[in-house]
Write a structure and sequence with these properties.
Number of strands: 10
Number of helices: 1
Strand content: 25-35%
Oligomer: single chain
Structural class: mainly beta
Largest sheet: 7 strands, mixed
Shape: globular
Radius of gyration: 16 Å
């Protein structure tokens, strides 16, 4: 199995060879801040199976034990380094995020109460204020 991914602008790309490990959704405040959302979705991979195929992430030491990687050009969160031989990658940085399904939630005490009602929220069509949005995002594949 081989999975690829990268940042929004395409400056940083990666490939993971082999089966990824545990995928999780973490609601801790550090993940909420790092992902600017209600959770961070992460999957553990062996460092030996990870290749940065274009560019490399910039890092921020978010705690005494955790170093978070992100694209310096566009800010996309990419990694959560906590071990010399394992690293967590952002699930939604993969070209096909549905290939990596989280199986556990962490730090649920920090999960916003409104998340319990997401499925009941109204859905609007994917339009911007002036009509359809023209994306400038790097495509979900290597170029």
């Amino acid at each position: 199995m081989s999975l690829s991914g990268g940042c929004q602008c395409g400056a940083v790309r990666f490939r993971v060879d082999g089966e990824p490990g545990r995928a999780s959704i973490c609601h801790c405040r550090m993940c909420q801040k790092a992902f600017a959302g209600p959770f961070g979705a992460l999957v553990t991979v062996e460092v030996a199976n990870l290749t940065w195929t274009r560019g490399a992430p910039t890092h921020f030491q978010s705690s005494d034990q955790i170093k978070r990687g992100f694209c310096a050009a566009c800010g996309t969160p990419l990694s959560f380094a906590w071990s010399a031989d394992k690293i967590d990658l952002a699930v939604f940085a993969f070209d096909d995020p549905s290939a990596v399904e989280p199986g556990v939630q962490l730090a649920v005490e920090s999960r916003p109460a409104w998340m319990d009602h997401l499925a009941q929220m109204p859905v609007r069509p994917p339009m911007g204020p002036g009509g359809a949005v023209a994306s400038r995002q790097h495509p979900d594949h290597d170029t």
